[in-house]
Amino acid sequence: MNRHEIPSSADAVNARKITDPDTAATSPKDTGDSAELQVGCSRRLTLRSIGYVDIPDLSRLYASTMRHPLLVESPTRFIDVAAQVARINRCYATRPGLGVWRADTHDGHFIGTFSLLPVEDSDDVQVGARLTPEVWGRWYAIEGGHLLCRQAFESLGLPRLIGYCHRDHLTARRVLTRFGFQDMGVHGDPTRLVQRYELDASAWREARRLYT
What we know:
The protein has helices spanning 9-12, 55-65, 78-94, 140-155, 170-178, 201-211; strands at 38-41, 45-49, 99-105, 110-118, 125-131, 160-166, 182-187, 194-200. By secondary structure, the chain is of the alpha+beta class. The strands form two sheets. It has a five-stranded antiparallel beta sheet, with helices on both faces. Strands 6-8-7 form a three-stranded antiparallel beta sheet. The chain is globular.
């Protein structure tokens, strides 16, 4: 997720809208951020695009999870998080439908981020999430993951999604498996213990047909 002229707010809102038609959507509150775009809504959370107004929330999120030994290190300094927000907005502009989105409960409580990001040096797209510790174990990863899969396979027509996690991060591996991701073994340098997962669009559609 952590992979200069900043795109204008008009350029930054090119991300396609993710909507779960099986749920009753609620509009997010107007925060006064001109770059804000709601990109997804489910029963308990709303996803929207990230702007510079979100830097304090992102910094707190990364600070709260930085000591977790199985998570990728993320920046916490204002200038570094601002640079990350610039990259995210460039992704909105250059790769419509992909990006990182902040997740809020419908009462306005920030709980983390969800993402679909290009994998470097390939045509693949990687799914990701980073949630605040206080909502771990409350199924928000599942709820947000459904929105990401709908975006990837229904809106964007991607052939597959990739997921990476530390081999010992059993919770992340269970979440990926729940969505039908197949374990492809250790990725790259075996000393890094990064596990690669893949989910084909056809397998996801078949699972939805069987369970809906």
